[in-house]
Amino acid sequence: MTMSPADNQKWIRRFHPAQDAPVRLVCLPHAGGAASYYFPVSKALAPAVDVLAVQYPGRQDRRADPCVDNLAELADLTTEALLPWTDRPLALFGHSMGATLAYEVALRLEERGIKPTVLFASGRRAPSRHREETVHQRDDRGLIEELRALSGTDTQMLDDEEVLQMVLPALRADYRAIETHRARPGLRVSCPVHALTGDDDPKATVDEVQDWEHHTTASFAISVFPGGHFYLNDHAQEIVGVISDTIAAPAR
Predict the structure, then answer these.
(1) pTM for this one?
(2) Which one of the listed residues 36, 42, 96, 151 is annotated catalytic?
(3) Measured by CB atoms within 10 angstroms of the end CB, which terminus of the chain is less buried, N or C?
(4) Is 96's pLDDT higher than 90?
């Protein structure tokens, strides 16, 4: 499957093109998230890093596109969308569902002979640390309660019925994708992995995040910040520093 230039544009957002940057950072959103979540990261890293943010189907300007509720399929499609951008080294950053997706994309890129420079896995337990979760089976009220509990969404938005009707289908599809996904056993990426997490994240304990070290044959590092599942909202500057320093360091 080869993606057309028009389809590629649907998937990739490049808010601050950095034509001369030596490396590209691919950012993958959390469940229910959109590419625009990474606009501040793109702005902060340009022009040293060329940031690409992935826009999943079913949200914002892609609201009319059918949602993808299977993580393996989403990884296949994301990988295809990234192939035209592999003329420069790629680093991957994913938060929550996006971290697992980034890992699956890294595996697929490596199968094609394209080795990412580093995989940043944020706010997500290691692929081998499975939990039985069924948020995607809840009714709309249950989905909204999950959003409130994680504090990742503007609570004012959660009170806007019209907005909710636009975002809930994509959110449910994303939760179904991540909650029904099972990592293929025994596979490891050959690129370094740097895990980031909040010390009070109900979705991923530090111990569960530490196990990312068993999913790479290269080096592993972990950064723990104060906060919950969306700890990164309060530590944006520090996280940008971690990304910048890691990308600039020699590969190990």
Answers:
(1) 0.92
(2) 96
(3) N
(4) yes
